[in-house]
Design a protein that fits this description.
Layout: E1 7-9, E2 12-15, H1 26-33, H2 39-45, E3 77-81, E4 88-89, E5 104-110, H3 117-127, E6 133-136, H4 138-143, H5 145-153, E7 157-160, H6 175-192, E8 201-202, H7 211-219, E9 223-225, E10 229-230, H8 239-253, E11 256-261, H9 265-280, E12 284-290, H10 298-307, H11 318-321
Helix pairs in contact: 1-2, 3-9, 6-10, 8-9
């Protein structure tokens, strides 16, 4: 069931899955066969209706803080992902790219950012000097941009999870509405990060993958994440159940991409113990980074700014507004 894929070099790999690329039109093929003099006109006629914007040029993501905790779980290795063509990860839906070694895990968190719970998850990860991928809901990002900035500043990977957590397999949604969910979610996360583009990593809500949207994301050079191990933390009645579910599945599968939710209170409560159990069990965390940041579409960036209401009062913290000068 596991199929090795990717290129491994020292402690980093670059994984790419070509495909979902534009097929050449007859006009494009004709242009290739014409003389150099006729080529410019033919090439202009062969341009497809949809063109990806170039990858944004920006500074590298902040580095994780140095680990001063002896015996912490840490990060075993970092892999770089070439998202060209929309590679898929997680054996729940995608079988081609099996890059994890035995006893390796990727920690992923959906549905944030959220008050109290996301900061608690960040603290648990920091205490063990380890990292994860946060698939953020666009609307939630506009509610809590400062929390999402904390996620990014701590060196975690930020991906996207639609604008409103709509099930894109819902037949009542038009293709345009599904596209809106994807693109507006990306623009919202970018806005929340202060204009910094997140990684081109996407997870479908409820892991529902409509084929036409898989193709769309491939054309947008966005990696799609399913999972290997679902914690079912949204069903858990207590944090101990989250730990039990994850560890039991890991014992069976030996490795995998773990799906959790930083939106969930039980996940935040369970994470310190889960990380300790991973360490005790000999598991190692792998960090996933994108080769290039995501490219949002300008029309969605502009539309989002129209939707977001400007604050009517200062959003600065109290201590930056009011200072005791005499007491």
């Amino acid at each position: 069931m596991r199929v090795a894929a990717g290129l491994i070099l020292a402690s980093a790999i670059s994984v790419a899955l070509t495909g979902a690329a534009w097929s050449q039109t007859p006009a494009a093929k004709a242009a290739a066969a014409t003389t150099a003099a006729a080529a410019p006109a033919a090439a202009t006629a062969a341009q497809p209706a949809f063109v990806n914007p170039p990858p944004p040029q920006q500074a590298p993501q902040p580095a994780r803080a140095a680990c001063n905790t002896q015996g912490a779980l840490g990060v075993a290795r970092t892999v770089e992902i070439d998202t060209t063509g929309g590679p898929g990860f997680g054996f729940e839906h995608f079988k081609e790219l099996d890059f994890l070694r035995d006893k390796e895990v990727v920690l992923t968190f959906d549905d944030g950012p959220w008050p109290k719970n996301t900061p608690a998850v960040l603290k648990a990860l920091a205490d063990e000097c380890t990292t994860g991928i946060f698939f953020s809901i666009g609307k939630h990002a506009t509610y809590e941009p400062e929390i999402l900035k904390q996620v990014y500043a701590a060196g975690h990977t930020v991906g996207t999870h639609t604008w409103s957590h709509a099930n894109l397999n819902n037949k009542k949604l038009t293709e345009a509405q599904r596209k809106d969910e994807i693109e507006k979610g990306l623009s919202a996360v970018k806005w929340a990060l202060g204009g910094i583009s997140p990684s081109p990593f996407f997870r479908f809500p409820a892991l529902q993958h409509p084929p036409e949207m898989v193709t769309y994301l491939g054309n947008r050079n966005t990696a799609i994440f399913s999972c290997d191990i679902d914690s079912f933390d949204f069903k858990a009645s207590k944090p101990e159940k989250v730990v039990e579910t994850v560890m039991k599945k890991l014992e069976s599968k030996g490795k995998g991409i773990i799906l959790m939710h930083d939106f969930q209170k039980h996940t935040a409560e369970a994470l310190p113990e889960l990380l300790k159990r991973l360490k005790a069990g000999g598991y190692k965390v792998v960090a996933m980074r994108a080769k290039f940041p995501a490219s949002s579409l300008p029309e969605y960036d502009q539309e989002l700014l129209k939707d977001i209401k400007l604050p009517t009062v200062s959003s600065r913290p109290v201590n930056s507004v009011v200072t005791t000068v005499s007491e």
